[in-house]
Write a structure and sequence with these properties.
By secondary structure, the protein is an alpha/beta fold. Helix content is about 35%, strand content about 15%.
Length: about 575
């Protein structure tokens, strides 16, 4: 970078843009090879915490004559240097302009990344709209969970990928390499790429053409990450991550990942042992996160924790787990986890009343939760996080009072057993209906209702043992507007971007007024996106096939209204939802 020290002092955390990294692949940009760029359109420290980005980065760089680099979203202070031409907007490792790459892949984990995506294109002098790009522009492809409704950003993408990318991404890289060596033109390369499973072109897809999401059949056939890049810049999840399973056995009706990631697939214990050893031995990290949608349901979780503790206890390596199910195995598992040090502990309650938990198919019971709270504080934990969601479909009319009562009971036990230092952190998010869930047809609370809920919670929980955290009401509303939108939302996103919208998932950067103006200027009524949808109405994402049948989702919606539960999935194949082949 050509920045002087004086210029770098103008920005926050300069290491975001010139990070010191180890374990980088020993490769570089090559005019003769394929050059691929991956982007998680958020800050460096958030993007480098994304496991999917790391997996794809590693896959591409293992292919001979393919070089893969990364780019992340610049904060406004750095953006001003780029726009003032005082700094070159270049890739992280090779320091190359983005236009030099053959393909740029964006990972969209959620909808609030879209303006950062447009900002990256604009800073790179790449036309925002796919239809405006020329022969010398990189091919732009989008993937990730948000692409299960890609319609809001289709006009900006040359290609979209639906599903799990490990196998298809190899094919994409090889096609780019071969086509480049054969001097194929851009349009021809795009036509070749849509032959890859899970890939389609919004401009070329026929009206009734279906796109089938790609699923990796056997996680044990996916090799682990060879080069886990370690950054000198602190990142959000500064540890190694081991994925135990994909899919989830529990079937919570609000959870998009629980449906798009079906069926449940489990990595073998032996594979997990070897991978954990490789990651810890080659990075120097002293913490490993065992991750999945429901880590407590991994059938070998205790044996794996015992193995890690036995091998790395003397090196003081700790084990981190995401939120745990509230069941009889939890406490035994925690005995293994706390042998080195106590990591964070989260219980996902979701709702306060049993009626609402039954409606969302959340198999959590009040007495079981209180028993677990009692036991974990006896074992020395000082802080427990409880996760709730408000505005759920078919909520009990006394839901909020039930939530407050449950939190107060947990706080009483925490203080009684854990003393003055004991803390209960109650974290709240707003229900957002997402595609491919039984609640994709449900309504969402409007902005005044979200704010009223927050006000009531803050006004009624006065216990000093309790800390309340909540998602910003306006960012939740915006995510709800975009989650079920069609192509018309692209005009709103572009308008908001041009008005200065950036980092919409960050409360200190988010400006809802810019979005309100963008909706008004685009002539799009935002409130229509949060209304209930008739189950017979055609949905923008109906052309995507995930395996789970629409009839199954409708049946689950009916069962939710009747407070009927659906039994958990397991690793044996069945034909109930349609995901198992």
């Amino acid at each position: 970078m050509k920045s002087t020290v004086k210029k770098l002092l103008q920005i926050e955390k300069p290491s975001r843009y010139a990070p010191f990294e180890i374990n980088l692949p020993e490769k570089d940009f090559s005019e003769d090879g394929a050059n691929i760029l991956l982007s998680y359109p958020d800050s460096y420290e958030v993007g480098m915490s994304n496991l999917g980005l790391r997996i794809l980065f590693d896959i591409a760089n293992r292919i001979e004559d393919v070089f893969c680099d990364r780019i992340f979203a610049p904060f406004p202070d750095m953006e001003s240097l780029y726009r003032g031409k005082n700094e070159d907007f270049v890739s992280v490792q090779a320091k190359r302009p983005l236009r030099d790459f053959d393909l740029i892949g964006f990972s969209f984990q959620y909808e609030l990344l879209y303006t950062n995506f447009l900002n990256i294109l604009d800073l790179a002098d790449i036309p925002l709209r796919a239809g405006d790009r020329k022969e010398d522009d990189p091919i732009i492809i989008g993937g990730g969970p948000a692409m299960f409704n890609p319609c809001p950003v289709e006009p900006f993408l040359d290609l979209v990928f639906i599903g799990e990318a490990e196998e298809s991404f190899k094919d994409i890289n090889e096609i780019i390499l071969k086509s480049k060596r054969e001097s194929r033109d851009r349009d021809e390369i795009i036509k070749r790429l849509i032959e890859v499973p899970g890939v389609y072109s919004p401009a070329l897809r026929k009206k009734d053409e279906k796109v089938k999401a790609v699923i990796v059949d056997d996680l044990n056939e996916i090799s682990g990450i060879k080069n886990w890049v370690v950054s000198g810049q602190s990142i959000v999840h500064d540890r190694v991550v081991l994925e135990l399973m994909r899919g989830c056995p529990n079937g919570c009706r609000f959870c998009q990942a629980g449906y798009i990631d079906r069926p449940l697939r489990v990595r073998s214990l032996e594979n997990c042992k070897k991978t954990s050893e490789y990651l810890l031995d080659n990075t120097g990290y002293e913490e490993i996160s065992l991750t999945s949608l429901s880590t407590g349901d991994y059938p070998h979780i205790r044996e794996l924790c015992e193995h890690i503790n036995e091998k790395y206890y003397k090196k003081r390596v700790s084990i981190s787990l995401p939120s745990l199910r509230i069941n009889s195995d939890t406490i035994e598992l925690l005995d293994e986890v706390l042998k080195v040090r106590k990591s964070g502990l989260t219980f996902a309650c979701e709702a306060g009343s049993q009626s609402t938990r039954d409606a969302i198919n959340k198999k959590v019971f009040r007495d079981d939760l209180l028993d677990k709270i009692r036991e974990v504080f006896k074992k020395g934990w000082k802080t427990v996080k409880l996760y709730f969601m408000t505005g759920l479909p078919f909520e009990d009319e006394n839901e909020l009072d039930e939530v407050i009562s449950l939190i107060e009971d947990c706080a009483f036990l925490a203080r009684k057993i854990g003393g003055r230092r004991a803390r209960i952190i109650a974290s709240f998010s707003t229900f957002i209906p997402k595609p491919f869930t039984p609640f994709q047809w449900s309504s969402m609370m409007d902005l005044p209702q979200i704010k009223e809920r927050t006000k009531k919670l803050l006004g009624n929980i006065k216990n000093r043992t309790v800390s309340i955290k909540w998602h910003d009401a306006e960012t939740s509303a915006l995510e709800g507007y975009m989650a079920r939108a069609g192509n018309e939302m692209a005009d709103v996103i572009e308008c908001a971007f041009k008005a200065g919208a950036r980092f919409d998932g960050w409360t200190d950067h988010f400006d809802f007024k810019k979005w309100e103006q963008a909706f008004a200027r685009s002539g799009v009524e935002k409130e229509k996106y949060i209304k209930r949808i008739d189950v017979n109405q055609k949905l923008p994402w109906d052309f995507i096939e995930i395996g789970v049948k629409k009839e199954f989702l409708i049946k689950e919606l009916e069962k939710a209204e009747n407070r009927e539960s659906t039994k958990s999935c397991d690793t044996s194949k069945c034909r109930v939802c349609g995901a198992c082949k």
